[in-house]
Specification:
With about 190 residues, this protein is of the alpha/beta class. The chain has six helices and ten strands; from the N terminus they run αββααβαββββαβαββ. Bound molecules: guanosine-5'-monophosphate.
């Protein structure tokens, strides 16, 4: 998506540890008009899939997921990050390794909101090693729901997540795919 790539080139900052900072329009301050254009792209890609729920992970995915859900006219569920193990049995849980913090955390979604008949589109801001997406997709399969695919804003294609998920048969659609990045510049696929 040209608009997003231009914005990444203009405002993205490459940090140590293969981290791209896009705080000025996506991860902290949010450009909702840009999100609207991204949502239209996701809609064009997945409009024939009868999506009933959009699933994301707190916190950075929520903004994009909400604007996207407006176009699909369906609810958004965000998986909560939990430090305490939930033993009540009323939630689906998965363990995820954080790309940006290195630590492990559990994500939870209430069984009330993810149902066997649901057709789920996962939306997230970044795809790196694929841990977040793998965790989210396991919540979907635990619920007996159907994972239609994943819509990602920025895929760092030089990291293994995209290939890993696609090789498992998940339809991953990324609006910007970064081939390489360094302090010298960013190159798209
Ligand atoms: P993964 O689980 O695929 O390794 O990483 C995806 C998650 O880590 C995303 O939800 C995102 O929040 C975070 N993340 C991964 N890489 C980056 C990055 O380069 N920049 C930012 N801001 N977040 C990232």
């Amino acid at each position: 998506m040209q608009l997003l790539e231009e914005r990444i080139l203009r405002d993205g900052k490459v940090k140590d540890g293969n981290v791209l900072k896009v705080d000025s329009f996506l991860n902290h301050q949010m450009d909702v008009k840009l999100f609207g254009e991204m949502a239209k792209e996701f809609y064009n890609l997945f409009k024939d899939e009868n999506i009933t729920k959009i699933l994301t992970i707190e916190a950075s995915g929520i903004g994009i997921a909400c604007i996207t859900a407006q176009v699909f006219d369906c609810p958004v569920i965000f998986a909560k990050k939990s430090k305490t193990k939930n033993i009540a049995g009323d939630v689906y849980t998965a363990r995820v390794e954080s790309f940006t913090h290195g630590a492990f955390y559990d994500i939870i979604v209430s069984k009330e909101f993810l149902r066997p008949g649901d057709r789920v589109l996962i939306i997230d801001d970044f795809l790196a090693n694929g841990a977040a997406l793998t965790g989210l997709s396991s919540l979907v399969s635990d619920a007996g729901a159907t994972l239609v695919g994943a819509g990602i804003a920025i895929e760092k294609a030089f990291q293994p997540g995209g290939e890993l998920l696609r090789s498992k048969g998940v339809r991953v659609e990324s609006l910007a795919r970064i081939k390489s990045m360094s302090s010298g510049g960013i190159e798209f696929c």
